[in-house]
């Protein structure tokens, strides 16, 4: 016999072990008329299309903001101008140079701070003399 679970669109053939093991009688299985697809091939609804379009717009704006900030960095960081080469620098190259420049500025700032403290100490020593 055959049993069809409700709502699945599939059916199961229930047979006894003797029927399964019998090699004498072969059953014919009808081929599929279309390829099997677990996902329904229904067209996208307008709601899904709106959500997708909105997501694409938000993502495009996010990328544009990131690209604009990278261009700003390229203008600020020395030897990193987009005009310095024909095609401009890569985004990774710009970010790498920006990180290097920030490290240089921090080291310079620390060195100048130490020099200022030394000068302040000299000023105090001169005032005492």
Automatic annotation (TrEMBL):
Q: Which UniProt keywords apply?
A: DNA-binding, Nucleus, Transcription, Transcription regulation
Q: Does the keyword Signal apply?
A: no
Gene3D superfamilies found in the cross-reference section: Helix-loop-helix DNA-binding domain (4.10.280.10)
* Feature: compositional bias, Basic and acidic residues: 41-61
Gene Ontology MF, one? RNA polymerase II cis-regulatory region sequence-specific DNA binding
Q: Does the keyword DNA-binding apply?
A: yes
Superkingdom of origin: Eukaryota
Gene Ontology BP, a term: positive regulation of transcription by RNA polymerase II
Coiled-coil annotated spans: none
CDD domains xrefs: bHLHzip_USF1
Q: What is this protein called?
A: Upstream stimulatory factor 1
From which source organism is this entry? Neovison vison
Q: Which gene encodes it?
A: Q7Z5Y1
